[in-house]
Amino acid sequence: AEGMQAVGLQWGLSSTRIKDGVSEMQGALQIMNHASNITQVSMEDLFIGMEKVGGNARNLGFTFRETVALLTSITRVTGSASTAGNGLKSIMTRMLAPTQEAVDELGQLGIIVGSQDWRSMAPIQRLEEISKRVQGMGTDDLAKFNKAFSGLYQITRGSQIFSDFSNENGNINKVLEATADGVNQNSKSFKQWQQELKIFMESNPQKFKIAGEMIRNSIMDVVIVLLPYILKTAQAIAKMADAFANADPAILCIPRFPKSL
For FRET with 74, which of 147, 171, 189, 203 sits at 20 to 30 Å CA-CA? Predict the structure, then answer.
């Protein structure tokens, strides 16, 4: 719950503003849930990582889905979702405000920081462009570039991002492709969400075990979807109890029948 609250505050998401039948908050959760399903990075890890990097990513011009995609890339090589979030924040910040050493290294790749072409690129496009240009570099040269660009303590994470961008089956490309159709009721993420909700609603204990990891990843999301119905049910039960408490005793009297009947 705290993770969802943090994500909502960082990205200015509302659970009441509706577009195409989906609230902003549900749309964000659909993206995270879908990304988790296709990359095996848990929802819990995505929440933890997003808590660390979300505010900065938004301020630097990254979209929510782009940030989720980047988190899925480096979380698996970091071993800690919190460290992954902090690492990504550092890489994003250094890219938008590069050191002179990084500027020089980018110049060696033919990228002129401050040029109109570079400034006109969205942040995610800059990372993608760099990833294209570092392909084919030798191990030592690549390590030297990553140290300048990503920072000494983020070399491995920067390298992972560039590697993922160059691989069509990498996490970044998989998540961006899978969530490119938005979060409306015809989107892949919405259909995945509905499918998991249906399994949850129809499951008995045995089916719940079969659902396994998929349900465990999205259980928090399901509760959010069901919350209005849970509240309505609770209110109905409360009204029923109140009605019984104030009912005429004669009405509540249950007749007794002879035991022979």
Answer: 189
CA dihedral 102, 107, 111, 114 (to 10 degrees): 70
pLDDT, position 215 = 47
Give the span between the Cα atoms of 228 and 250, in whole angstroms: 36
Of 11-15, 114-118, 193-197, the range with the lowest mean pLDDT is 193-197
- Following DSSP, what letter does each residue of the chain receive, concatenated? -HHHHHHHHHHT--SS-EETTEEHHHHHHHHHHHHHHHH---HHHHHHHHHHHHHHHHHHT--HHHHHHHHHHHHHHHS-HHHHHHHHHHHHHHHHS--HHHHHHHHHTT--TTSHHHHTS-HHHHHHHHHHHHTT--HHHHHHHHHHHH-GGGHHHHHHHHHHHT-TTSHHHHHHHHTTT-SSTTSHHHHHHHHHHHHHHH--HHHHHHHHHHHHHHHHHHHHHHHHHHHHHHHHHHHHHHHHHTS-HHHHPPPP--TT-
Q: 242 is written with which tokens?
A: 């109140």
Assign 37 a pLDDT band (cuts: 50, 70, 90). very high
Structure tokens at 83: 């460290």
List the beta bridge partners of residue 18: 23
Does 141 score more than 50 pLDDT?
yes
**pLDDT, mean of residues 170-196:** 93
